[in-house]
Every structure is written in C-alpha cells, then in structure tokens.
Design goal:
Helix content is 64%, strand content 0%. It has one domain (3-465). The protein is mainly α and 471 residues long. It contains 20 helices and no strands. Helix 10 packs parallel to helix 13 (261-292) and helix 15 packs across helix 19 (421-435).
Length: 471
C-alpha cells in the first residue's frame, strides 16, 4: 500500500473503505467456496442430517440467492461457529456450552424467529443470519475505527493514518473469523464505538463547563457500548479499565472535586460507566445462575461453581472443560501455537508500550522525544492526542499479557481485531516510512507486516473452511 494510493482514496474515505472491504470479503469467500472439503471433522454435516437436511437442507420456498447464501454460510460454520449456530437454534442444554457467547446466540435466535419463508428452525438459516451479522458488523466497525483514528491522530497526518488504520482492520489477522458465525466482528463494532465515545469524553485544553457536561454524557454512552461488547465477549470487561484508570487519576483531587457539581458528576459518570460495562458480563451469568443454582432451593444438588464467592459459569467452564488458567497452557506441545500467536502478540505489546510511553506519534516537526523540556514545549493538542492513545492502549496491553499467561494463546489472532492501538501503530509506521519521518519502531518494515496480514488471512481462510488446524 503506497502513501500516494491511500491519498487518492481520501476524497470519499468511507466509500473507499467499503469498496476495499467488499473486495477483501469477496476474496475470502472465494477461498472458502473452493476449499477442498470438511477435513477431519464432519460436525456441520452431522447437524444438517439431524436437521432432516439429507433430502434438502434449504427450505423449498427459498430463492436462489438465499440458497447460495445459506450454502456459503454453512461452509463458514466450522470450529466454534458450530456451537454458536447450534446454540442459537436450540438453546443451551449442556453446562460447557456456556463458554460461547450467550448474547450473540440470543441475537441470532431473535432474528431467526422473524425470518420469512418458514425457515426459522433451519440450521442453514441460523448460519446465514450469523454470517450476515458478522459481515455487516465488520463493515460498520471499519467506519467507526476510521472515525476513531481521525480523532486520535495528529492533524498533519490525520487522514492518511486514519484511512490506513481502517484498511488494516479490513485485513485483520482475524480474517475469516470476521465473516464466519463468530462474535468477533460484533465485539469490534461495540468496542470501537465505546472507545470513540470515550475519547470524545477526554477534555480538550479548551473545554468549557458545557463541554464538561457533554463529556460525562459521552462517558455513559461509552460504558453502554462496552457493556454490549462484554455481552458479546467477556474480554470486553477490560475496556472498563479506562474508567478505573480515570477514577484513579482523580483520587488526588477527590475531596475538592466532590464539592463541585461538575466534579461530583464526573465521579458518578465514571462509576456508572464501569457498572454498565460489567453488566454486559454479569447478565448471562445471572441467567445461568438461575438455571443451575436456584435448583438448590428446591432440594436438588447445585453445581460446585454455585458455591463460589463470585459464581460465574463462564469462568468455571473455561477452567474445568478447557483447562484455562495461569500458565496452564505453557506446555511443550503448545509451542507451535505460541509461535503462531507471536506476530500478533508482538504488535499488540510493542504498540501499546509505545503508546503508554507517549511515543506512538507521526510528526515531521519532532524527530524524537528526548527530554521533558521538549515534551513541555509541544502543543497542548499533541499532548491531548498522546493521552488518548495512552488510555486506549491500556486494555490492549492487559489483554496481550493475559493471553500469554492465561488463555489458549492462539485465539489472540482473532480477538486482537477489536483493539485499535496496534492498527494505529502499524498505520503510523507506514506513513512515517513514506514521509521519511520519525514513527513507531518495529523489528521489521511495516510493509512486511501488511504482507503478513494478507497472507495469513488467506491461508487461514482455506484451513478454516476445510476444518483444518491451525486456523
């Protein structure tokens, strides 16, 4: 991607981004359609047979476009997507199924109940709805990320960096997972939206009292968006660190701020935003608690996790059935999976560290940050932008560290799609290289990173559709 070609797309950036998104999705779907077969797992075919689909798995009233769409959607129903689609179709039966997003499956089911043509019970219909949600959410998240990048990049590079940032999200290493029946695309949309309203809430140097009121409203909207993100994926809780960080930073002035209406309102809005974020995670846990633990009141034996201080079926299932926990994944057979995850982890850790240190900048006027004096001489706007990036980097940094120590590490390649700072870093490095100016530093040239993203996503798509690891 050249700086010149990106600049030519800036006349109508949103339209250009959607055109790039459409071309990329077409390529990935073509890879899926021509993939050789189901590999070693035939779960999707078995579910189709159980559905009475041996004669005709698409409803007779479906048109040719719907038939093609459902066929492609079933090709996308691989790995965890089988759980999402099946759970949306029939609900949660087994305890271990609660590891898969309750919010996402209920959304699919709600839409399916209103699906025309008498196909509401079809597995193919649920797969098509889920894949459509992923496609639409990914397109919308590209636009939201562009708006976010415009807000947090410096004025002299704003359009170029913002545009390339959004393009990188199109080419995300999550790849086919942003098209398949997974919650990643919807999570990205809500998480980016929450971060957009959060940076709107950070006071600019010229903020007035009326703007401070708008700031607190934006904080609440941000918390609601993060709550929806947590409703789709539990790692959305990490975005609540933004509000916790802001509350911590206000502690030195807490007694004085509580004496003013704006100060008190600020504290309350941050606290409420944090509660809204947590509600997205707690709501499905409460549904499960009522189903599995309230039975104890009727003399039946409850599950062991019901007796925990903070009962969470999600945490229990991850630990009990998937062996998730601190350093549990650090075994010799998993070394290849750490190697697969390394490029994404490196980008996340390096860019978040540079952002936290205030180095994630592209500005030809300032070759480097060499002293506090130089930093003090910088315009207030630049320091404001650095603060935005520094705060947004916190959830990404914690996620990357947690992925190394606690998760099945290979999933970082897809869940990283919903965190913006590493996109900013690579985009800033590309622009800095084109302008021959100072920018974020990596071990390899930024163009090599883009080539890696493209190659990884294409190969991943073929492996995924063929039910082959290590997609």
């Amino acid at each position: 991607m050249s700086w010149l070609s990106a600049s030519r797309s800036l006349d109508n950036p949103v339209r250009s981004l959607l055109a790039i998104w459409a071309c990329w999705k077409t390529l990935l779907l073509a890879v899926v359609v021509v993939s050789p077969g189901p590999g070693y797992d035939t779960s999707t075919q078995i579910l189709r047979l159980q559905d009475g689909a041996v004669e005709q798995y698409v409803h007779p009233s479906a048109g040719w476009l719907s038939t093609i769409g459902q066929h492609v959607a079933l090709k996308l129903t691989r790995w965890d997507a089988i759980y999402f689609v099946r759970l949306a179709q029939r609900g949660y039966v087994h305890e271990q199924e609660w590891a898969f997003s309750w919010g996402f499956t209920r959304l699919i089911n709600t839409i399916a109940l209103n699906f025309p043509g008498g196909q509401a019970e079809s597995l193919a219909t649920h797969a098509l709805i889920a894949a459509t949600i992923s496609h639409v959410s990914h397109a919308a998240s590209v636009v939201v990320l562009y708006k976010l990048a415009c807000h947090v990049t410096s004025q002299n590079t704003r359009n170029g960096v913002a545009f390339i940032t959004a393009v990188l999200h199109v080419l995300s290493p999550a790849g086919i997972f942003l098209s398949a029946p997974y919650a990643e695309a919807l999570f990205s949309l809500f998480n980016f939206s929450g971060m957009l309203f959060y940076v709107y809430s950070i006071p600019r140097p010229d903020s007035t009292n009326s703007r401070l009121l708008r700031r607190d409203i934006n904080v609440l909207i941000s918390g609601a968006c993060f709550g929806l993100a947590s409703f789709m994926r539990s790692n959305g809780l990490l975005s609540g660190l933004l509000f916790a960080s802001d509350l911590f930073q206000t502690l030195p002035t807490l007694p004085r701020s509580l004496l003013s209406a704006s100060g008190l309102r600020r504290q309350m809005s941050l606290a409420l935003a944090g509660i809204l974020t947590a509600c997205g995670f707690v709501a499905p846990q409460w549904v499960a608690y009522r189903e599995y633990c309230v039975a104890q009141l009727h003399g039946e034996e409850s599950r062991i996790w019901c007796r925990s201080l903070f009962p969470s079926i999600y945490s229990f299932v991850q630990k009990h059935y998937w062996n998730v926990g601190f350093l549990r994944y650090w075994t010799a057979p998993n070394i290849p999976l750490f190697l697969i995850a390394y490029p994404t982890l490196y980008l996340m850790l390096s860019t978040s560290s540079q952002a936290r240190a205030g180095w994630l900048v592209v500005d030809r006027r300032i070759p480097q940050k060499s002293s506090k004096t130089r930093d003090a001489d910088r315009p207030e706007t630049d320091r404001y932008l650095e603060k935005c990036l520094r705060e947004l980097a916190l959830p990404q940094l914690v996620l990357a560290i947690t992925a190394v120590t606690n998760f099945h590490v290979q999933i970082i390649s897809r869940i990283a799609s919903g965190y913006p700072v590493w996109y900013f870093g690579v985009a800033a490095a590309l622009v800095a290289e084109a302008q021959k100016s100072h920018g974020p530093q990596f071990f390899v040239r930024p163009k090599a990173i883009v080539r890696y993203l493209i190659c990884y996503a294409v190969v991943q798509g073929g492996l995924f559709a063929s039910f082959l690891p290590p997609a």
